[in-house]
Structure formats: structure tokens, C-alpha cells
Amino acid sequence: MFDHGDMRTLHFDHKYVQSAMSIAEPHKLLLSYTRAMMGFMLFHAAPRHILLVGLGGGSLAKYCYRHFPAARITVLELSAEVIALRDAFMIPADDERLQVIHTDAAAYMQAQQGNIADIIMLDGFSADGPADELSTSSFYADCLRSLTPGGILVSNLWDRPDFLVQAIGQALAASDWRIWWCRTSDSHNCIAFFIKGSVTPLFRSEIRSRAKKLDAQFGLQLLELVPSFQLVRDKPEEEPT
């Protein structure tokens, strides 16, 4: 952990910043990939249960806790050392809405029965990038199985190419779902949105309209992502005439 003026950062090594926080505004999302991950609101605006894999500096947990007062938030974190920095990153204490669990996310998700979450956000990293055990088709299958109908699995794929999304899609071919993905403009991060079940398809114009409304309310800069949005699995996108 390092402080640079108003910014507090979390590092696993000297190469990459894992999390960044404004000390004056601890709930603000400073890193573009975290704002992009909140793009799930383009598809599901009112989740009741959000499950986060990876605590880091708690940016996403704090943001969800602040902006979704009716939602329950569960965070899975493998590292006791990361959890020990909870107060330093101004993450609220556990209460009836927020719970941080020290656990192996792969084992936790495998053990779940039924539909437990509306949104699952995957941001579990090691010093070298996305944790290998959280990048397998079996782990993605466990996550998808645990979503409610219409739920969304949001995955930070870092700088992995889009064929990884397709490979995961092939592994889950028996399920009914679609994938949108986008790339942030100022980082290596590629964000994928796996949408479970038969939901009404969205055209890019609808996504653009929703992004404008969400940006006006939350200032997430989602509109900047719309040109990069790609639909990986669904019928070919055709705008209505």
C-alpha cells in the first residue's frame, strides 16, 4: 500500500496498480476498468444481491454499497493480508447488507446450490494477472449456474484476447445466455458481460441511450465504452428499421 498525495494504491508488486482510492472521496471509482464493470447497469439496473470475487482495495464493494442501498453485497477474498487492509481503504464493516468472506472463491462457488446472486463480478487477481483458478470453464459454469434468471456475470479479463470469451462460451454451450464485451480506452482491461437466460436483445442504440442516462446519474463515463461494445454470442445485431 502506498500514498501519493490524495491517492492511496494497492500493489502486489512494482509492475501493476491493483486498486486506487481517493482519500478525500473513498467511494469514487478512479480506475476506468472499475467504472466499466459497473456497466452491468446497462442490462440490469436494480440487483438485489451482488457477489464480488476479489476485494482488493474495495472500490467496487464501496461503490455498490453506496449506490445500491436495497442490495445485499457479498465479497469473496482469498488473501487475509488484503482483508487486513480493509480499514486503510475505508471499506465499511460487515452489517446486514455487506459481508466480506475469507475464502477460496472457486471452492465457494462450486459449493453453491441454486440461484444466489443477480450480479457476480469477477475481479480476482494475482501479481501476474487474473488468477488461473478463476479462469477455468468449470469456474465460469459454477458462476453462471449461481445466477438468477437474467443475472449477469461481469468478468475483468484484463488484456486477454476476445477468443477467451468465445472459449468460455463454447464450454457453456448448453446454457442460454449471451455475451457483450468492451475494452477500456486507457488501460489493458477487457470487460465481459455474460447475461443469463432469454432476455430481450438490446441494440447498440438502446445501450447508448441507457449509457447517457446512467452517466448523467452516476458519472461513470459509460458512453465512452459504447463504440467498443461487441456482441459475442447472440443473433447478429440488426438495428430496427
From TrEMBL:
Q: Cite the PROSITE patterns for this sequence.
A: PABS_2
| GO MF terms held by the record | transferase activity
Q: Where is the signal peptide?
A: none
According to its UniProt entry, the protein's GO biological process terms are: polyamine biosynthetic process
Provide the alphabetized UniProt keywords: Polyamine biosynthesis, Transferase
Residues of the PABS domain: 1-206
Q: Which residues form the active site?
A: D123
Name the domain of life this protein comes from: Bacteria
Q: Name one Pfam family in it.
A: Spermine_synth
What NCBIfam families has UniProt attached to this entry?
A: MFS_SpdSyn
Q: Which PANTHER family match?
A: THERMOSPERMINE SYNTHASE ACAULIS5
Family in the record: Belongs to the spermidine/spermine synthase family.
The molecule here is called: Spermine/spermidine synthase family protein
Biological source species: Collimonas arenae
